[in-house]
What we know:
alpha+beta; CNF1/YfiH-like putative cysteine hydrolases; 6-stranded mixed β-sheet; 7 helices; 15 strands; Purine nucleoside phosphorylase; hydrolase; copper ion binding; metal-binding
Amino acid sequence: xxxxxxxxxxxxxxxxxxxxxxxxxxxxxxxxxxxxxxxxxxxxxxxxxxxxxxxxxxxxxxxxxxxxxxxxxxxxxxxxxxxxxxxxxxxxxxxxxxxxxxxxxxxxxxxxxxxxxxxxxxxxxxxxxxxxxxxxxxxxxxxxxxxxxxxxxxxxxxxxxxxxxxxxxxxxxxxxxxxxxxxxxxxxxxxxxxxxxxxxxxxxxxxxxxxxxxxxxxxxxxxxxxxxxxxxxxxxxxxxxxxxxxxxxxxxxxxxxxxxxxxxxxxxxxxx
Length: 272
């Protein structure tokens, strides 16, 4: 069953987690319903591309209003295609939400706990978003996994850090979000050199000399299972960012000049 449901113009709701975990807010924006123009039309969420900064901030305010989570509760990492994870706290509230330079440097993964009522965010235009949530401990996480982060095993790092934060791996739910599909993602020998022989056999297909299809979604599934996550607790979307042009920006399809979608996860503010 597809974990994401398109219930509004601006975003896919991560319904499978939201319905299971009361108070959880999680999803993935589309490219629609915003104010950006040209190559970034309409709902570009990335401040690090060459879009008008004021339009990006207005796009973020549109989503903020829909989620009822103010920008000063958002947390954004720099995203350097690495494997560093940050445990968020109250001191991180608002970092990266209204300026790129104020984001948490060197970070591709964020861990959120319910008590802080923060929204963990990450930006995408083909790379793989990884959503994590423990329904019992009420801890969540978001990670950015391009090919470098995937082969660097950011998924394994997230599992380890979530354990350190108190999450139960037996109960941990993981969802692999909209990203480029195997049929549309061609890489070369440089990328394959980072894979084991078994991974090459299972997750790549040669199409010509030095050209291969690679399935980053299923490769991340394999890494998660090897890290102790139960396979039945992992869901994988069928959405492809390159193929679903009416919904998504795509770095590859749009030749690098394009907007970014926002993946987000967090908890509603607790009522006193």
